[in-house]
Request: fold
Amino acid sequence: MKQQILSASILNCDFSKMGEEVHTAEAAGVDWFHLDIMDGHFVPNISIGPDIVVIIRKLTKLPLDTHLMISNPDDFIERFAEAGADKISVHVENNANIHKTLLNIQKLNKKAGIVVNPGTPVEMIYPLLHMVEFVLMLTVNPGFGGQKFLSEVLLKIATLSNKIQELGLDVGIEVDGGIDERTIPITREAGANIFVAGSSIYRNTLGIEAAVKRLKSV
Ligand code: DX5
Ligand code: ZN
Reply:
């Protein structure tokens, strides 16, 4: 079985006490932090930019899994790399030069990921699989935390998992959107091994520490 990774999405954390929110999740055992970067063009919301990534970099040594939901990602990859991102993932949609974008990430010695929206056929990324550490299969439409998991993506995850095995590649499958104790087992069953959790950590009535431990145990 592939290594199981829990990546905490800080999009829905309490930004007025971000240091504490990061430290508590790290102490409880998360493996990565997932940073959602939104520009108000590619998605209908604006979140954080490279200056905030610099601050988060100072708060933790865990890998920063940086999910770019921005138009023209090539213009900003270097800024995010310098800010301290370890993994940079970019969408396949609306990027005619995605192959070059992935090369640019590799040139900066960062791990590349490729992101597939729920409405995008997964076959589109087959020519790029050899270039990435993981494929991020979005299980909600991008833009906001707290949305309902889209179960129709499960079939695409299973199709991708089979393709990766058939090609004999070492590529992870990350799932993002509505991931909680109910959806971790079903996405794992389909082939996912990297689980992004936002609301189920930071908006959980159990509190951050108990929420992380629960998610790691399912
Ligand atoms: C959606 C983001 C997700 C989001 C997940 O555009 O890519 O990372 O933060 O949040 P939850 O876990 O609340 O669905
Ligand atoms: Zn994300």
